[in-house]
Design goal:
Elements lengths: L1 H14 L4 H14 L11 H11 L14 H15 L7 H13 L2 H11 L3 H11 L3 H23 L20 E6 L5 E5 L5 E3 L16 E5 L6 E6 L5 E6 L9 H6 L2 H9 L4
Bound molecules: zinc ion (2 copies).
One zinc ion (ZN) binds next to loops.
Amino acid sequence: MIEHLLENIDRLIQQRPVCKEALESYRELAGLMKEVQPEPQDIRFEERLKDMKKNEGFPLFSREDLPVDLHASSKLFAKFMEHLSNTERKDKDGLKKVLEKSKNDLGWIDSLLKAVLGKDDKVLSKAGKELDLDPATLSFLAQEALRPSLYALRDATYDKIDTDNWNYGYCPVCGSEPDMAYFTKTGKRYLHCELCSQEWAYPRIKCPFCQNEEHKTLGYFDVEGEEGFRVDFCRKCQRYLKTLDKRVFEEAAPMELENLATIHLDILANDHGFK
Ligand SMILES: [Zn+2]
Ligand SMILES: [Zn+2]
């Protein structure tokens, strides 16, 4: 799976030279991900699936209880820090402090990973302040350190859930919000989970964040010079979602990469007042 990620990074760099810098630094992280082999976790589908059906609309797991290998993820996070604090990044001093902190306090990375899983922004902003690092960077790197384990979880749950008939705006595996959407070759819309990368079908004219279905408050804008991308928005909740149209591209990269390669669309959406 990580190999697939690496192959696509190289292809995307060739296709979209504008994103070269972001993708090249991500390729270094992906190279480190390849060195980590997460332990298979006890997932126990049957019991949980029964519960899910019974309760309707409950994801398989809550983010806090995701069966991920925290030990392998902690090791990977430390590898990221070793690597990044030796680059010429502007924030390398903060990264060095994070590296020192994780060496002196072994349980600290675990608590950081748990904060990311539990979306505990207080823990992240406190750590960011203490260590002179943007909390968003800290959160991004911690989430990427969980990636090999999250991929293992996605692969283990993939054929156990009916992703075509989930119909909720949150992920059927972990309950997270989508960070991107795409249209299939037949025009069907799928959402992509911001955390575990699971994908599931969702109506085209419906906001996944507030379930608004009114035509007049839902819309999208196209982006000049970016055929195959658009930004869908909802005027009720002021949220937006970047959408890739697979009918335009011969081959699309995994959505987590497409997300990284379209950060300029996030900036554009923010400029339009969407969050
Ligand atoms: Zn998920
Ligand atoms: Zn909405």
